[in-house]
Amino acid sequence: MMATGIILAGGAGTRMPGDKAFMEVAGRRVIDIQLEILDGLFGEMLIVANTARVKQLAALDSRGVRVVEEPVGGKGPLGGILSGLMLSGSEENFVLACDMPFIRRDAVQFVMECLAGFQVAVPRTPGGLEPLHAAYNRSCQPVISRQLDEGNLKVTDFYARVALCEIPWDELKRFDHEGRLLLNINSPEDMKRAAGMAETGEMFR
């Protein structure tokens, strides 16, 4: 696929002990699981991180991944998305948070297919939009920049200014029979839940 996969590893993770970029589920780093699942899917893979994490993740460069420092730091996930789009060599991009251990390759491909004719393709679940398992056209950059200049860091607020495709949860559920596809780990309780899912469900695929 002539597109770029972007993993955001720049968040502070204030509710989790340790560093979210290096968290493990079932004895494996989540970021390593993600790279394995996405291997060969994109023409380019980026890990966008802050200065300290760039050095810590540098070993991943040997796996065909570019570990890059975010040019827009301290602006939360929205700044991470903009950073990834600025550094990407592709018009079409898939943006993923580094704390989602149960992503599915076929689901990622489907989200990317939904981007055709739009600037953003984002899943809508019963809990709301999932902007960190979503596809973005590079043309979103100026819109995101304007919103950041306004001091607004809420990721989904710029969606009203772009051509948006909302992907119904019913369309994604066919890739996710165990109900864990979009689980992200934000707390120790989430980590326990993920560990339980890893034990009881089919392992990462």
What is this entry, summarized?
This protein is α/β, with parallel strands linked by helices and 205 residues long.
Features:
205 residues; alpha/beta; 8-stranded mixed β-sheet; two-stranded antiparallel sheet; 31% helix
Can you walk through the features of this model?
α3 runs antiparallel to α5. Helix content is 31%, strand content 21%. Strands 1, 4, 5, 6, 7, 8, 9 and 10 form an eight-stranded mixed beta sheet that branches. Strands 2-3 form a two-stranded antiparallel ribbon. The mean pLDDT is 87. The protein has one domain: Spore Coat Polysaccharide Biosynthesis Protein SpsA, Chain A (Alpha-Beta Complex), CATH 3.90.550.
SSE map:
Blueprint: E1 4-9, E2 24-25, E3 28-29, H1 30-38, E4 44-49, H2 51-56, E5 66-69, H3 76-87, E6 92-97, H4 105-114, E7 120-125, E8 128-129, E9 133-137, H5 141-149, E10 164-168, H6 169-172, H7 188-200
Parallel strand pairs: 1-4, 1-6, 4-5, 7-10
Antiparallel strand pairs: 2-3, 6-9, 7-8, 7-9
CATH topology: Spore Coat Polysaccharide Biosynthesis Protein SpsA, Chain A
Low-confidence stretches: none
Largest sheet properties: 8 strands, mixed
The number of distinct structural domains comes to 1
Ends distance: 19 Å
Percentage of residues in DSSP E strands: 15-25%
Shape: globular
Write the element-wise H/E pattern from the N-terminal end onward: EEEHEHEHEHEEEHEHH
What value does the average pLDDT take? 87
Number of helices: 7
Count every beta strand, where a strand is a DSSP E run of 2 or more residues: 10
CATH architect. name: Alpha-Beta Complex
For the CA atoms, what is the radius of gyration? 16 Å
**CATH top level class name:** Alpha Beta
Name given to the CATH homologous superfamily: Spore Coat Polysaccharide Biosynthesis Protein SpsA, Chain A
Structural class: alpha/beta
Helix content: 25-40%
